[in-house]
User: Which sequence fits this backbone?
């Protein structure tokens, strides 16, 4: 299952099984991806705390849907080339993929900027 942030297009890949634990697996996957990108640990902790209430839904945005379709194609191509890849490997690849809707920046770069902006006034 692809979970994509509407604002940054940062995309996580999580198994679709056991939907009751999806929110927790989503949070765990985000933490792992942000830590692998060496994001500030305090900012990660703040963001994870804010994510206690999840809003996971089908997108209504054609822009996000188009980006998710591109991400899905990229996942398939990546797995064909690198079948030994972990979900984190795939997510890192998606995080650097240039995306038109966000000015050809990578979703990881945009997510990092948004994280800093969101918590710039905190402590």
Assistant:
């Amino acid at each position: 299952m692809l979970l994509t942030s509407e604002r940054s297009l940062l995309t996580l890949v999580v198994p679709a099984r056991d939907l009751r634990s999806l929110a927790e697996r989503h949070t765990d996957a985000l933490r792992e991806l942000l830590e692998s990108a060496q994001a500030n640990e305090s900012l990660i902790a703040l963001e994870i705390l804010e994510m206690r209430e999840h809003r996971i839904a089908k997108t209504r945005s054609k822009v996000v849907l188009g980006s998710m379709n591109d991400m899905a194609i990229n996942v398939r191509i990546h797995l064909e080339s690198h079948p030994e890849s972990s979900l984190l490997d795939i997510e890192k690849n998606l995080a650097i993929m240039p995306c038109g809707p966000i000015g050809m920046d990578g979703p990881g770069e945009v997510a990092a900027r948004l994280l800093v902006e969101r918590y710039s006034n905190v402590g």
